[in-house]
Amino acid sequence: MPVSSFGAFWVCRSFWKATLVAFRDRRRLALAIGATIASAISFGTGLGLFLPAFQLLLGSSPADFGRLYLERPGIPAALRSSVQFALDLFPADRFGAFMLLMSLICLAGAISSLAAYSQEILSTRVIRSAAHSWRRRVFGHTLHLPLSEVTRFGSSDCLSRLIADTDVLAQGYAALLGSTTCDLLKAGAALIVALVLDWRLAVLCLAGAIPAGLLMRKIGRRVRSATVRMLEHNAEMIGTVQEALSGIPVIKVHQAERLAEQRFRSASRRHLRSDLASRRAKALGSPAMEVITLCGVAFIACIAAWFVFRRHVEAASVLALLLALSGASQSLRTVSKSVQKIQEADAAATRLFALLETPRERYRTGVLPRLPRHERYIDFENVSFYYPGRAVPALDKINLHIECGQIVALVGENGAGKSTLISLLPRLLEPESGRILIDGCDISEVSLPSLRRQIAMVPQQTILFNDTILENIRFGLNVSRARLEAAARAACVHEYVEPLPRGYQTKLGELGSGLSEGQRQRLAIARALVRNPRILLLDEPTSQIDQESEFKIHQAVRRLAGTSTVILVAHRPSTIALADTVVQMDKGRIVDIVAQPALRALRR
């Protein structure tokens, strides 16, 4: 490969860093490389055997094979005797020797093809396993990112990196372990044959390849930048589809199908433009390389003819040299296409590392002390929080004391900061200033597992998963069936699950489809209750529930009073009436705190 093309090849730092994942399957990788080397050696051997074949066609006898090279000074005696022994095996008849040479060339070609097939099978396993490892790594890292970072990237962008970017990276692996390595070795073998035949013409060929390398480097840069834009627009298009599919009822009721189509059409058109820009850059490389290669071969052929006609160099050697250079040229043209794939993969790897290098939550238990079991109080001390890009704080110097076992209701208009406040307790969000204490322990200085193990949360937006009702309630928790059903009864879930043909083994659809909004909300409450949390966070827990079910759920929440701390966001008077203390919020601040001792006395 030309020098400058090598520069474009090796400058893909993100890709080479990402390639370390593929190197973990060392056994198969070693076998694939061995098969590649065997294919290249067989290919070079086949090319080298064309020299004696041309010599026979031009009138030489089998006895003349290798005579010119064996007579050169400096050849080891052992090598000289081995080559002479092989030459003595050839028939004396020219036609018989030619047939034997053709058979050996076909055998070398068959071995090369078989080795290339083995290399393809082995490298495919390595490549697909590496892609699988990348998807697992990206998904696992995304799950452990802070919520603010996941929100910053966006779900559609994370999904695009997980699927599209890893696929582009796998294509780069395929180019490297497949055609690139194999063709590079074949080109190297062909160039070695050419250097052995006539090093002067071979060096001239390499010098003439520099313009091709410069061109490929420039095209590679264009391909990389276009690929980055294409992947970004792909994420945007995925986000448009996600929004439309999740909001289909709203789209239909408001007859906004045309608007949704226009939004998708615009996103798809932007993706198309960036995709076409990338493909135009790649398409330019092939014809340009064809023209440069053709001109180079014609130039070398003219020089070779000059050696034959003016310097009386053996024609057979020149023909074999041109054949070897043609084989090297063909392999390098394939490599130039593979380099473009590696440039695309480098763009994808850069985006993947941007995600992977985002710091994870401090999750490990061994790094930070465990939070003791909550038994005394929760304190918010001068807590402030800003959402990214917002100048006005979502929470402004919040000071709030909550005794263990209390039920506290947060009330106020939409946007007052209620949901943000309860999201700080499990550290889904991190405050800009101030601190939050549980029994005197700053929650930023304790391990996340020990903190979140004591908290259960029912968010404002009900989240269910494509699994059975049983698994949606249990959700990774190893609990008895009796405890699970007790939580289901307390949340009024058992009454609609029991009549189902498969009961708790009934599988829900995506996001809990198949249940009404109220049933999904009750299921989310059951999932929180089955954990027997020390701190229960409820964000509008009964907004979609009928009055009878709401009354039963209120009874379950009251039973937690005195043992668990309950913080709920509420608008309904019936839910607010549950609370020992009502905290009035407005524009991120606490404007009033009202105790309700009568209710506390009634529960006792």
What can you see in these coordinates?
- It is a single chain.
- The chain is an alpha/beta fold and 604 residues long.
- It has two domains: 3-145 and 163-227 and 279-356, Up-down Bundle (ABC transporter transmembrane region fold); 377-603, Rossmann fold (3-Layer(aba) Sandwich), CATH 3.40.50.
- Helices cover 63% and strands 10% of the residues.
- The protein has helices at 3-10, 13-18, 26-48, 50-57, 67-70, 77-88, 94-143, 147-153, 155-197, 199-208, 210-246, 248-253, 257-311, 315-356, 418-424, 448-452, 469-474, 481-490, 494-497, 517-529, 547-560, 573-576, 597-603; strands at 377-385, 395-403, 407-411, 433-438, 441-442, 455-458, 535-539, 565-569, 581-586, 589-595.
- The protein has a six-stranded mixed β-sheet, sandwiched between helices. Strands 2-1-4-5 form a four-stranded antiparallel β-sheet, with helices on one face.
- The termini are far apart.
- The model is unreliable at 1-10 and 598-604 (pLDDT under 50).
Give the topology, please.
Blueprint: H1 3-10, H2 13-18, H3 26-48, H4 50-57, H5 67-70, H6 77-88, H7 94-143, H8 147-153, H9 155-197, H10 199-208, H11 210-246, H12 248-253, H13 257-311, H14 315-356, E1 377-385, E2 395-403, E3 407-411, H15 418-424, E4 433-438, E5 441-442, H16 448-452, E6 455-458, H17 469-474, H18 481-490, H19 494-497, H20 517-529, E7 535-539, H21 547-560, E8 565-569, H22 573-576, E9 581-586, E10 589-595, H23 597-603
Parallel strand pairs: 3-8, 3-9, 6-7, 7-8
Antiparallel strand pairs: 1-2, 1-4, 4-5, 9-10
Helix pairs in contact: 1-11, 3-7, 3-9, 4-7, 4-14, 7-9, 9-10, 9-11, 9-14, 10-13, 11-13, 11-14, 13-14, 18-20
